């Protein structure tokens, strides 16, 4: 069996993608930026010490390859013996309100995609390539969240922000655009859009040269669920969704993010399964990944019913307020579930599994 190359194994989604392939007996070549991230990084513990991945490393089923930073990565060695590629890695920093948007995000995202496809072009054994795009590549980012009720976003929808428009927004140093979307989030979403567009350009060029590998772009909504990537203190810094979820356990006065960046969610394990099935099936296409509507007020009201002995520690927010339902926002239509046969987890299961894991990590001092 040929191996699958997976980028971003130390990330929230990438860890689950790798674990899904490993559980299905596939050899995995996982890429790292460096052998041991410096203490200034969010994940200073080497993945070799992870209880999730250490057994697979010891058996040889999981092999790690240091490829360098995303925009300059060298996949030559990691690509040997590989038949499928899943690219989840991407630079994430939604806290910015200014800066060199193109150099810091677009060039890195597109450049990283280019380096990967350069390696794919040199490997005649590649059957399928799966990339993680974003719901942000599909969203209407110029209309206020609460004014999108009744609209539908499909697998064929793209956000219409141009690079020049984001340059202007960054130059203004405004924290949000006129519609209220956070500038840092817009920068990230538009960078994801252009990285995906570049991937489709490379796919079309490869097709013209007679290449037969498939390309699947998966556009996740808000990814929730239990983290399994290597985590060190503080737990709040382990991923965007984990950060927001863990804030809900910070006491009655803790912040409840409302509205969320996306009113649609997908469990990280279901999203990983989508990546797995897309790679195995080898079906070319673009798919939104989302299983249901939610908001964090709904979650904070659910938590005391799941953990009554810890009810006092959870945020209260504004009981009864449901921004995802009133005023509501956009709907989504995707072929993902139907074409790949995915059975999705419900919100209560996602929340319970997530906080079971977070409380376990808390007991470990994380």
UniProtKB/TrEMBL annotation:
Official protein name in the record: NAD-dependent epimerase/dehydratase domain-containing protein
Pfam families referenced in this protein's UniProt entry, alphabetically: Epimerase
Domain NAD-dependent epimerase/dehydratase residue range list: 4-136
Annotated GO MF terms: oxidoreductase activity, acting on the CH-OH group of donors, NAD or NADP as acceptor
The organism of origin for this protein: Cryptococcus floricola
Annotated InterPro entries: Epimerase_deHydtase, NAD(P)-bd_dom_sf, NAD(P)_dehydrat-like
Family in the record: Belongs to the NAD(P)-dependent epimerase/dehydratase family. Dihydroflavonol-4-reductase subfamily.
PANTHER family hit by this protein: 3-BETA HYDROXYSTEROID DEHYDROGENASE_ISOMERASE FAMILY PROTEIN (AFU_ORTHOLOGUE AFUA_3G02250), NAD DEPENDENT EPIMERASE/DEHYDRATASE
Alphabetical keyword list: Oxidoreductase
